[in-house]
Amino acid sequence: MSWDNNIVSANINRQIQDNSRLKFERKFHLTDRLIKRLGMIHELKEHTKCVNCLEWHDSGQFLASGSDDCNIVLWNPYKRKCVKTIQSGHTGNIFSVKYVKSPSGNCIASGAADAVIRVHDMVASECILNCTCHTNRVKRLATPSNEPNVFMSAAEDGFVLQFDLREKHWCSQICNNVLINLTSHISPSAEVKCISINPVQPHLLAIGANDPYIRLYDRRMISLTQAKHPPSSSISFLMSSFGRAANQQQENDDPSWVPPPSNLPHNCVQYFIAGHLHSKKKPAVTCTYVSFNSKGNELLANLGSEQIYLYDINKVQTLHSYYLPSSTQTTVSSKKTSSTSNKNSTNGTCEYNGKTNGTKNQPTAKTKNGFHRPSNLKYYSVYGVKQLLPPKVQLMKEQANERFDKGDYINAVWLYNKAIVHCPNAAVLHGNRAIALMKRGWDGDVYAALRDCYKALELDKGYFRAHFRMARCLSELKRYKEAHECFEKFKSTFPEEAKDQSCSELEKQIKDCLERLKEREEASTSSKGESPRNLSFNSRLPNLNEKEITWRARAADFKQRFCGHCNTTTDIKEANFFGRDDQYVVAGSDDGNIFIWDRKTTNIVRVLKADEAVVNCLQPHPTDCLLATSGIEKTVKLWAPKPEDGPDSVEPTEVEDINEAASSNQKLMYENQTGELAIYNMGYRFRFDSDNSEYPEELVQCRAIVIAKELYLSKKPTNTSE
After folding, report:
1. Residue 21's domain spans which residues?
2. Number of domains composing the chain
3. CA-CA distance, 428 to 528, in Å (whole number)?
4. Fewer CB atoms < 10 Å away: N or C end of the chain?
5. pLDDT band for position 382 (cuts 50, 70, 90)
C-alpha cells in the first residue's frame, strides 16, 4: 500500500524522516472520511445578539467573537466555556476582531459600525487605542504575520489605514496613516468591504470593495499618505445601502469634489474579476470577503449576489472573449479536409443544437458495467494527438451523458467536473460540460461554458461543436458583435456543419440582435447628439481616473468558481479554505446552511444546517480539524468529526438533498439581485433611536435578517404540488 493511502506507514515515516512531517500534517489534517463525519459538537452561549465575527488565536487555544451586543468574548474551545468577556466600548455592531501581535501578546483589536477602532489589553481589560479616523463602518481588520504591533483597517469610507502600536496616534479630519484611498481614483462613494494579507508574502494585500473587482496591492511600493475624507450626504449613503448601481451613487456625489492625488504607482496593483462581470449590466456586485490559501498563491473571493471565485495570483489569466486559440486557425485549403474529418470526430457526444447530450444513432459496444459506449468515442484528442480515455473517466462521461439526456443538468455538471480533474486535457469533457452549464443556467454558467469552449478548441482545433457553442455563449452573453465574428468563422471553417437548422436559427438570432443594437445606438446618438452610451460597468463611473481605467482593463480572470450558496442578505458573509492543504472551501448561506466544496472538482460534498436564518462566519482552526461558525443566532457553533458508529455518529443537521438546496439558493439569489433583500439590509446598517420604533431595541439590529428569512421561506420552492 502506498504512503499516501496508509496512515500507519505515513506516521512511522514521519517519525523517521523529519521532512515528511509537514506532508503528513497537511494530508491527514482533513480527509474525505473526516469531512463525511463532520458534525456540530457544541454551542457556545454568552452573547445576547447576533455574532458577526470570529477569530482564532495563532496557537489555536482561544477563539474570539464579536457581536451586535458590542461585547468581545474569548472562548476556550476545548473546555467549551467563556474565558473572558470584554466590554468593547463600541456603540455599534462589531464587525471584526483581530489578535494583534505585541510584546505582551495580550492585545485584540475591534472594528465596528460606529466607525471606531479600539485596541484592548485582554489582561488589564482596558482600551489602549481609540481611533475615530474612519467616517463610516469599519468592516475588517488584518494583521501581517511578519510585523508585530502592526494592523490594517478597511472601512466603508473607502480608506485602508495602517496602524503601529509603537507609534503615537492622534485623530483629526486629515488622516496621516492612509495606505489606500479608493476615493482618490474611483469616486466618493467607493467603499472597502474586506481585507486580507498574504500569509506567505505579507507584503501582498488584497481588498474587496463595493464593486466586483478584487484588488491585490504590493505594500512595498506604497507609502503612507495624508488624506481628507470626501464630503458625503446622508442621501448618498442611504442610496448605497439599497445596493443601487454605481452610476446612481455617483449622481449623489458632490460635483465640486476634487479627488486627492493618489499615492499608488501604476505597477503596484493587480485587479481580478470574473469575466462576465467585467461589463455586465446588473446591480452593483459587492465583495463580502477575501482570503488567501495557506501557500499564498490563491485568493478566494465571496461576491454578494454572485458566486465564490478563486484566483491564481501567480498565473494571471486573461479575460475570455472571442479570439480563437492559435491552434484553431486553419488555412483555406484545409477547411474542407477539416470539415470532412470532423464528421467522424471523437470529440463529443453532444448534438450542437443543445437538445441532446447522448450518443444517438452511434454504433455502440456494451461494457461490463451495463453502459453503452459508442465505439468511435473511445479516444480523445490532445493537441491533435488521439489518446485513449481511461476507463474510469469514460464511465463518468457516459453517466454524465445519461444525466444530461434526462434533464438532470446539475448532476451532469457534477460528473463532468470529476472527470475533468482526472483527465483535464480531454476536449470532449470540456465541450460536454459547456452545454450542460448552459442548460443549468446558474449565474455565471454561460461565461463558464465559454471558457470550456475555448479550452476545448485549444485542445482540438477540429472540434466544431465547441466552436458552435462558443458562438451561442457569446450571443447569450449579449456580446453580439463577437458572436457574429465567431459564427462567421464557424461557417467558413465548417461549411457542411453550418447547413444544420440549428446553425441557421442561431445566425438569424445573432443578426436580429445586431440590428436592434444598431437601432438603439442610432436612436441614442440622434437624441443626445453624442456618441452612443456604453452601458458597461466601467462606463457607469464617470469619475474613474486613468490609473483605474488601466487597472480594470488589465484585470485577470478567475481560475475556479464555487456555486450553490446564496449571498444577498448580509455583506459580511465569509468564504475560507478548510484543511491544512486547502482541500476544501467552506462558506455560509442565506438559507442558514454551511456549504462545503471539494477544492479540486468544485463540487459540493456536504451541506449542514447551522443557523435558523443566515450563516455569516466560518473560521477553521489553525491546526486541528475544528470549525467555528456563527450567524444571526446568538451562539457560536463548533464542528468536528463525530464517531464513525454509535448513537453519536448521527448528524441531525445534515441536509440530504444537496441539489435542491443549491437550486433554491441560485433561484433566490437571481430573483433578489435587485429586490427586497437589499432594502431589508438597511436595518443592518443603522440603529433606530426613535422612541416610536415598532421594534424593541434588542431586535433592531437583527430584524432585517429575520424579515429576510421570512421572505426566503415564503419564496423557497417546495417539493409538493398544489
Report:
1. 1-30
2. 2
3. 49
4. C
5. low
